[in-house]
């Protein structure tokens, strides 16, 4: 009889305050946290989309990690983020909450959110997102470069 192996989950279950503390500390990286419950129908509908997007973004640079918090099993973790409704996804970077999405998303909309989060993690600002490129670097005050003189 052949043994079948279950593929590894493309996300990590957050179950302790210490794990959340590491994620939410400066330098904690970039992540998407899905707050869900087993009895929640929209949460169950979101789950395959969440897993598909997490698998699709495995190995990205900059890395975006995906997490799930079972609010029934770990209500204290949901309370730490002031979660009032599920499903709720929290997008974080280096200890800062950048966005919160309440309600289920399909894979396309979730992937767009992850792409936005990755751009923020790379340091792309508003200008880069608006026109598709980064502005020219600005020299620090006091190091002004004189414009070329016309002959």
Written description of the protein model:
- By secondary structure, the protein is α/β, with parallel strands linked by helices.
- It has a single domain (12-123), classed as Glutaredoxin, CATH 3.40.30.
- 34% of the residues lie in helices and 19% in strands.
- Helix 2 (41-56) links the parallel strand 2 and strand 3.
- Helix 2 (41-56) crosses helix 4.
- The longest helix has 16 residues, at 41-56.
- The mean pLDDT is 85.
List the helices and strands and how they pair.
Elements: E1 12-13, H1 17-23, E2 30-36, H2 41-56, E3 64-70, H3 75-80, E4 88-93, E5 96-102, H4 107-122, H5 126-131
Parallel strand pairs: 1-3, 2-3
Antiparallel strand pairs: 2-4, 4-5
Helix pairs in contact: 2-4
Brief synopsis:
This protein is of the alpha/beta class and 151 residues long.
CATH architecture: 3-Layer(aba) Sandwich
What is the CATH superfamily? Glutaredoxin
Q: What class do helices, strands and sheet pairing give?
A: alpha/beta
**How many beta-strand segments?**
5
Average pLDDT metric: 85
| Number of separate domains | 1
**Helix proportion:** 25-40%
Multimer state: single chain
The succession of helices and strands, N to C, reads EHEHEHEEHH
């Amino acid at each position: 009889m052949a043994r079948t192996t279950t593929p590894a989950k493309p996300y990590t279950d957050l179950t302790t305050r210490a794990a959340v503390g590491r994620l939410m500390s400066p330098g904690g990286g970039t992540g998407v946290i899905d707050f869900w419950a087993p009895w929640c129908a929209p949460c169950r509908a979101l789950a395959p989309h969440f897993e598909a997007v997490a698998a699709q973004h495995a190995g990205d640079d900059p890395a975006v990690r995906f997490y799930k918090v079972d609010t029934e099993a770990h209500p204290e973790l949901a309370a730490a983020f002031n979660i009032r409704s599920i499903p709720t996804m929290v997008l974080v970077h280096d200890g800062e909450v950048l966005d919160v999405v309440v309600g289920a998303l399909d894979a396309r909309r979730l992937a767009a959110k992850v792409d936005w989060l990755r751009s923020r993690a790379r340091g792309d600002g508003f200008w880069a997102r608006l026109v598709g490129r980064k502005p020219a670097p600005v020299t620090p005050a006091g190091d002004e470069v004189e414009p070329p003189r016309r002959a």
